[in-house]
Amino acid sequence: MNEQELHEAVSRLPKSIEPPRDLWPDISARINVRQWRRWYWVPLAAAAVFVVVMIGRSIKPTAWDVTALAGRPLIGTQRLTASGRLRVGDWLQTDDSSRALVAVGRIGQVEVQPDTRVQLVVARADEHRLALAHGTIAAKVDAVPRLFFVETPAGTAIDLGCAYTLATDSIGKGVLHVTAGEVEFQTGLRSARVPLGALIQIRPTTGPGIPYVEDAPAPFVRALIAFDFEQRGTRARAIRTVLALARAQDALSLWHVLQRVDPAMRGLVYDRLAALVPPPPGVTRRGAIALHSRDLEGYWTTIRRIHFRIMVLRGVRDIDPRTGRAR
Question: pLDDT tens digit string along 26-84?
């Protein structure tokens, strides 16, 4: 083919070439495959994260760190020389010359005083639980409420974000003293709320007594104990003494008394409480005497707020115990 024939052949070629109609589905499929390959790792990564989280939740830490503070405490049958691990089910025992510090997971610590026996019952991220058979512990916890529990022969101390000491003998007679935050002590259906600077007496079968503040007059405290734990015949006389001696600072005691006296005496208790600390708006005498939750909780919120202001600002400002305002 000479040059002229070659030019003539080229001139006869079509100006453009259109792909067949059925070619596009294949091209589209190839594009979609590439896009899928680009994004398919996203759900796989999410699934991997989910698996890791679930595995983390399923792992149950079963031991807490323990440090000897004095002497040689006993974990099970092993003497603790410096530090060790308290596992679920293990007992930690101190004698009259030894003390130990237990790390409550990552939320706090418990100092185990001499002549004390405690057991690690539960060690989970959502529940930390000790059993105090006898002796004294000092707990300090920084966590959300109802995460740390201490069982005793007379009931359970429920942490509400706090620090406290708890002492009990082997039959359940003891005392709880809260030094920060608030603790609830519960025995069956009976419970007590104990804010910082308050104490309760604890007895076997009965559980928690009425909380009282640290500086409550001794006759007032004796009357509360008689009302809580002595024979029924002395209760009426004891409650009259409580009402006569109560101060505005003792409103947290009267709030508990209101829920434990015979229905016929609730009016007297409420009237004394209202005279010492006026009820907040929305709380009615009728509702409080009937032990309606809304009225009781509304009153407790006010009493607790005033009490915390008194305790936190003690020595800094003079707080009116009736209103919680600075004087």
Answer: 545 554 544 544 444 444 444 444 443 444 444 455 799 999 999 999 999 999 989 99
The residue out of 209, 240, 272 marking a domain boundary is: 209
Q: Tens digit of pLDDT for each residue in 126-152? A: 999 999 999 999 999 999 999 999 999
Question: Domain range holding 145?
Answer: 58-209
How far apart, in Å, do the first and last CA atoms of the chain sit?
Answer: 118
Beta strand extents in 89-223 (DSSP E only): 91-93, 99-104, 108-112, 117-124, 127-141, 148-152, 155-159, 163-168, 174-180, 182-187, 190-195, 198-203, 207-208, 212-213
The total number of structural domains in the chain stands at: 2
Q: What does the alpha-carbon distance between residue 288 and residue 290 come to, in Å, rounded to a whole number?
A: 5
Whether the Cβ atoms of residue 250 and residue 232 lie closer than 8 Å to each other? no
- Residue 50 is predicted with a pLDDT of 45
Measured CA to CA, the distance from residue 47 to residue 40 in angstroms comes to 12
d(CA 282, CA 285) in angstroms, rounded, equals 10
Kindly tell me the number of DSSP H helices and DSSP E strands found in the chain: 9, 18
The reply to whether 299 falls in a domain is yes
Q: Which two tokens stand for residue 322?
A: 């009736």
